Amino acid sequence: MFSRLIEIFEDGKLVEKIKRRLPYLFQLAELESSRAGKTGMEVGSVRERIIVALLIYKFGEANVETEIPITEPEVDAKISGQPVSIKTITGKGFSGVKMKWTVDAEKAREFLQTYYPMCDILLARIKWNDFGGLYYIPLEAQRKVFRSIGREAYIKPPKLGTNPRGPEFTKTALSNLVGDPESKCIVINWQRVPIDFNPYKRWVDLWRED
Predict the structure, then answer these.
(1) Taking the CA of residue 204 as centre, how many other CA atoms within 13 Å lie in the half-sphere pointing to its CB?
(2) What would the mean pLDDT of 177-189 be, rounded to a whole number?
(3) Total Cβ atoms within 10 A of residue 153
(4) Are 173 and 121 in contact (CB under 8 A)?
(5) Which member of 45, 70, 89, 199 has the greatest number of CB atoms within 10 A?
(6) Which of 104, 122, 11 shows the shortest CA–CA distance to 64?
């Protein structure tokens, strides 16, 4: 099935804009989600909104659905009715990418037993002061890798007695997914720039309004 996500990776002008703007926007996301120099977990949600905003910018508000029911836990947005899952990862390796966020052990176990790839993935790989990228991993590639390596090699279950917030893709699965011939990548040089950021200014300005 044709996915409109491929249009992002075939739009040369937009590709250059993503290379230039995404590191800056993700740096803002970190600043907005930091306290005492440490980035909080909420940065993931801010990054997700940045990617969804990219989809709206490219395809228009009328074609991007953002109000996704809780019954579709893997879906973060829909483009012309097609579901998309948005993932981000920071660091050198391919590890720590959640497949589903949950602190319920029973739900995590059920997910492990029943999971089968159901939607396209947009994965941002953040490597500050290095090269990472924005990846499009089509559903067909996911299903091919899943069938090839098997459920146990594809999914990393939560450790018993811990609170890891859900199962993850294994390093093997992610490496195979981004390396699949059907997947696409925009290579991004993740460089920080000086930003004069005040997390309270926007809210103070709103308080000043009549």
Answers:
(1) 4
(2) 96
(3) 14
(4) no
(5) 89
(6) 122
Backbone angles phi, psi at 173, to 5 degrees: -60, -50
User: Average pLDDT, whole number, for the chain?
Assistant: 89
Count of other CB atoms within 10 angstroms of residue 201: 10
Mean pLDDT of 67-82: 87
Task: Return d(Cα 17, Cα 25) in angstroms, integer.
Answer: 12
* Fold exhibited by the domain 6-95+119-138+170-208: ECO RV Endonuclease; Chain A (3.40.600)
Strands (DSSP E) found in 81-129:
82-90, 120-126
| Residues contacting 109, CB < 8 A, separation 6+ | 157
pTM of the model: 0.89
